[in-house]
């Protein structure tokens, strides 16, 4: 439904042409400094009209905080917020309304609810993500202040134009004899994950932080635009500084929650964490992440094919994952299809639409990542605090118990 | 945590060496014929020791139904069930216990809980999936009887050995100019999805329903086994006969729930539905699934790149998705790694372990798929029944309302 | 937290002096005719300033529907709504701020969150209930249209002034020998439950539908007001027309959900259903509700000490319960108490406050009742629809199966 | 449904005549010493056959722990447990099966599910509470070890025989002029709440810790037994040592959760906390609990009419509440009633049944109380730990912020 999270929860409302879209964020830790600008920054990264690659409709998307904050500090009570829709008219009737848009939500919404918004998918509109981005910005601010966690997403491919570091495809010919051809990730990509920032991402209109690739992506997007067509792509996200121990076995493993979150974003069809699909081709002896002692004395891993998650639980290494966005369904090319009643015909949608959504999807991916991590932090804190009030365990073999010294230190640093 | 689902819920318990593993299934519709064999069949497909490709430990995994059923009929009350662990001894201490197994859950469990099972990951053991498979078998029986829904999973790749129909990789050279090279799915693969059965799947020890590919997979697995190594793979699952309208916008879209479910299975790292990652490279004009009038008068789609889900809601076409399983972490090759306390050393695990888990993962994938669909069926039924008790809508433009005729018919057939 | 319900969910936000208070209602059946006035009516019954018995602050409490509705029909998507706070200034500092108000939420909020709203309890303000009342009005409209369900609450006592029909106390002297002195409910009270309407309730400023008692209640309230004191009371609620079968064993029995809902209303301290505490004194032989054949052929009960719920499940009889509201904590009499730092002193609160909240609590009780019933209706519908798709049961003894004829009929009428 | 709790969750299964009844307890803090006897003690207090006041069926109710524990220490993973039913035969058919037992769950279960257990209410059997008691015993052990929390319930009335300390009824004649007649609680009762122990409770077969009253209760119960009748009563519970800050505004106020928990116990019809219904008659000026500085420097209250909860949040004082249990529905007196098909007749139930359930309800009330407190402790810990990682608040007026000193101290002692 429209609520996400257990202890840190966001509930959203709003269609594309109703009075406003908004959200209630429940469970925000009290005492967090928070002003509208903290939220506005990410909302502005999400809104359309930021470059000639996106739809020209320039909505201001100003957030109005309603509750849960006084004098710039959160009270621990729910934060209500909303963004007004500038275009609130229910859509005029047109001949195109006789056609459910192919691969869009028009028809399935009608099947599901028996009624649908005049604007078509309505709730499936990208405007619904405003509430997510706002909530994510709040979660992110907390995670940054309390743990130094950094979340950065970027465009890793548009169509077949891909960051060089991940472009190396799996060896082309299915090879039964030899799988030792390449690693899942190039060293350049690993370095990128460690160093990429939002500033570097936003320096390119595509939000691909590699200038040359970005140029080629721009061409690819403009080619789609000129053809009244659309093109998909992928967004990669890295979360740095996450403490070990997040993720709830067995059904709420960290990758399960991240996958759920990402696949709830409109137009997503694929998710992989760490080495992902490519990793399935690498033998265990090469895929396993060996342990090493870190500089701070704790354990780390030499490689990070796991993507920072083992057994469904974060291990303190960088978490990274990739999300696949299909090519937008709404295109202005004529399409041979059928009307709601089955009558064959040709649909020619009007208006201007994003030929490629991945640049704008970047802050949405970051927001959903923040929501997942935030919720898991709270849940794990509940457990750790509870355990810390018990007397030390003396009856178990030492290999079954975490040494008490390690418990106290580095709570924030892992 | 250990509960999955909203109206149809499974809660599981059990580690690898405790007294038993089991589950409570809550929300099963009353009046369903159910005997132990319904559950046992899938449990037996899951258990080890079925061929020389899997671990030789042959556990019987006999299910004991405890409640919720009388005279072979479900009462609507919770169904308790359990499978005894034959090997219930807490593990003996050994030098290997000083080492967290690389890419396994040993270390993260200890970080998370502060204590861990003597057997290592404990709850991360594959035995935990017994409860899921049992619950899934019950859901599946209902879905079959009430809707004729069929769920079939199969192994689609082992390492780089892939079903030919999906083997065609995306065009090798990233091509900025031309993306009209291949479709995401070959016609053979589409045909396979339509016709594959569990019988065909189980006819091969790999559970890959294509004999020739299966032979090559066997070789690949045996090669890993001989090398004391392991290899990953992918499982593809198709769900046929699902009614349109399942999936709850916005956070519980059908692909989000499926992704969550699949990524909660041990060793999974990737999920894609429909055309998935490959579909991100196909322009909208070719990727969109045009509508056509079906034989029964309703709407269907000409192609099915969407994988049966549009806008997060099932559209009545076959749902299919692919899950990536990493190469098993437990290998008996010596591995250079570190002990819990950071001391470098070499870990040489003992015992026999599955060199490849995907054949045994097949019924687990089916089970999780059944749990998702079952829960969504119940939730959508609640809505449809509620709406059906309201008077017909007369105040909306006709394009906003589903024609009443279509509502009544084909509830089960869509 | 701030979300209530499983399939029909309300999430609220807002403190007393923030920008607005509001709610998101998720899971409303699509196709329900709904306009702002449907919600406004109940909000206006809740707002202050309706008579000289309540606080003179007259806020308009106009509701603004934001989403989920087009052309006066619900779309099935979340309904966002808000009511602006007319007084949005954070409170000025005053000496009274040094004192946590006795029996108010000031101190516990500070203990819980570490910070608190400048206005004191903030979220504990009665303004928070606006979201509940709005959501309840929507639920209620559905229940009325689809099932003919009627929900009417009324004031049954103020201080010791009680409706005569329930005034008869339990026999005064604890009597070990004879408990057959009185029934729990007088015939007049049973008749009142059957016939009371909101019109009759609102005809009295106290919302006690018995004119003479209402007069005495007015005097009692005015006496409290004149003394700068306050007085508590009880609200009784009846729900007529509820179908049999609602309530989810075992933890979500219908009385458990109703109790939860009622005890979440500010200032409530007690809840009883049916004969309640008094019924504990009546032997089973007199307390049991014998079955009788109803006019429509189904089963009913001769008496209704159970309050319409048996085994946690509605039985089709009227559901009635009573809720106890303590005397309001905020009084303007000087009170000897202590400051936050423990310094003893005298608190003399200023301003005008409700000397008695029960008249205004009436629509809040109705709203929470509607939310519970609505959610349970949806959950039970999911089960019934699911069961109805299975073949008839032939293997059970006839006493274990509901006759199929009874299934179809009277879905709405029971 | 059959799951209770958010972070500390119990899920139960089992009917009266199935193979076993059991539970899965999820979210137990790791590192808690736990052996079967910890659970068995409370199970044995719950089981029948403890005195001639209860049903003579003496079941052993031995608990079998299945998982989540090694070497007597919890692992943090789910604890599965079960108790075998000694009488597992589905009931024989008898003429009484034609009759739904008045005020029992037979008919409502059949209405709800369309089928029912051969034994009648099945899941409504008191045996279902075994899982709750087991789970509660685990929660209780944690709360005792970590916080020193004590939970003691006792029988406060049987029929009209009531503890003298609470027997004083409200002034008998509804008095509009004078309500200053008595306090809600006698000093003796307050003292009892402070000092009562399980030992004192169990010293009496009735579990009423006042010997003289207990004698009269015994007579009352035996009188019911001799008459083949039954009698109800009330159980009062006190929870001592609860830290301030528990309970989640707004829908999950602590009294709302406690009320929900208690009203989910079979046969309960009423709940009140603190002064409860009686407190509604006491003016605010007398009902308010003035603050005083405690010996440890923190704030306490002079009186405790609030029952330890203000604004839905615990304030560190003793929490106490009262639960009303109706007279058991199953009696062996002949009852004029109707068969399932409406045919009038006389039902004469056979067998031996508890004439009064309140003595056995004592450990069930304690268990549900422990489950609520445990869950709220975890949730509040999550928040407090999260807030503690933020920098000190400097921008708020001092009256809005809890002094940092108070935060650190007395975490366990409040």
TrEMBL record, chains A, B, C, D:
Origin: domain of life: Eukaryota
GO biological process entries: amino acid biosynthetic process; aromatic amino acid family biosynthetic process; chorismate biosynthetic process
Q: Which cofactor does it need?
A: FMNH2
Where composition is biased (Basic and acidic residues), the residues are: 404-414
Enzyme Commission designation: 4.2.3.5
Q: Which InterPro entries match?
A: Chorismate_synth, Chorismate_synth_AroC_sf, Chorismate_synthase_CS
Pathway annotation from the record? Metabolic intermediate biosynthesis; chorismate biosynthesis; chorismate from D-erythrose 4-phosphate and phosphoenolpyruvate: step 7/7
Q: Its Gene Ontology molecular function terms?
A: chorismate synthase activity; FMN binding
UniProt remark on cofactor binding? Reduced FMN (FMNH(2)).
UniProt keyword annotation of Amino-acid biosynthesis present: yes
Q: PROSITE patterns from the xrefs?
A: CHORISMATE_SYNTHASE_1, CHORISMATE_SYNTHASE_2, CHORISMATE_SYNTHASE_3
Gene3D superfamilies for the chain: Chorismate synthase AroC
Q: What is this protein called?
A: Chorismate synthase
């Amino acid at each position: 439904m429209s609520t996400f999270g257990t202890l840190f929860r966001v509930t959203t409302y709003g269609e594309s042409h109703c009075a406003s879209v908004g959200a209630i964020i429940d469970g925000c830790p009290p005492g967090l400094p928070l002003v509208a600008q903290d939220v506005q920054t990410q909302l502005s990264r999400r809104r359309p009209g930021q470059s000639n690659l996106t739809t020209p409709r320039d909505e201001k998307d100003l957030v109005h905080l309603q509750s849960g904050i006084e004098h710039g500090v959160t009270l621990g009570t729910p934060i209500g917020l909303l963004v007004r829709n500038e275009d609130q008219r229910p859509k005029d009737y047109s001949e195109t309304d006789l056609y459910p848009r192919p691969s869009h939500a028009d028809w399935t919404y009608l099947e599901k609810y028996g009624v649908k918004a005049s604007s078509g998918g309505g709730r499936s509109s990208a405007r619904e993500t405003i509430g997510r981005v706002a909530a994510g910005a709040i979660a992110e601010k907390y995670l940054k202040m309390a743990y130094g966690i950094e979340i950065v997403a970027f465009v890793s491919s548009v169509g077949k134009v891909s960051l060089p570091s991940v472009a190396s495809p799996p060896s082309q010919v299915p090879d039964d004899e030899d799988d030792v051809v390449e690693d899942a990730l190039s060293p350049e990509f690993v370095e990128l994950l460690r160093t990429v920032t939002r500033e570097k991402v936003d320096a390119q209109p595509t939000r691909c932080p590699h200038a040359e690739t970005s140029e080629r992506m721009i061409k690819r997007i403009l080619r789609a635009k000129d053809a009244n067509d659309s093109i998909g792509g992928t967004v990669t996200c890295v979360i740095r500084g996450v403490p070990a121990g997040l993720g709830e076995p067995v059904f709420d493993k960290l990758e399960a929650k991240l996958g759920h979150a990402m696949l709830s974003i409109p137009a997503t069809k694929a998710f992989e964490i760490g080495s992902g699909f490519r990793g399935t081709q690498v033998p265990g002896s090469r895929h396993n992440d060996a342990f090493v002692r870190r500089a701070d004395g704790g354990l780390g891993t030499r490689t990070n094919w796991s993507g920072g998650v083992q057994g469904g639980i974060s291990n303190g290494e960088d978490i990274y994952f990739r999300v696949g966005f299909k090519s937008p369904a709404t295109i202005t090319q004529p399409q041979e299809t059928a009307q709601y009643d089955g009558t064959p015909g040709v649909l020619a949608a009007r208006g201007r639409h994003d030929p490629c959504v991945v640049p704008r999807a970047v802050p949405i991916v970051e927001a959903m990542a923040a929501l997942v991590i935030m919720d898991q932090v709270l849940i794990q804190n509940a457990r750790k605090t509870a355990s810390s009030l018990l007397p030390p365990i003396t009856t178990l073999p030492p290999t079954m118990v975490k040494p008490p010294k390690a418990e106290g230190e580095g709570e924030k640093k892992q």
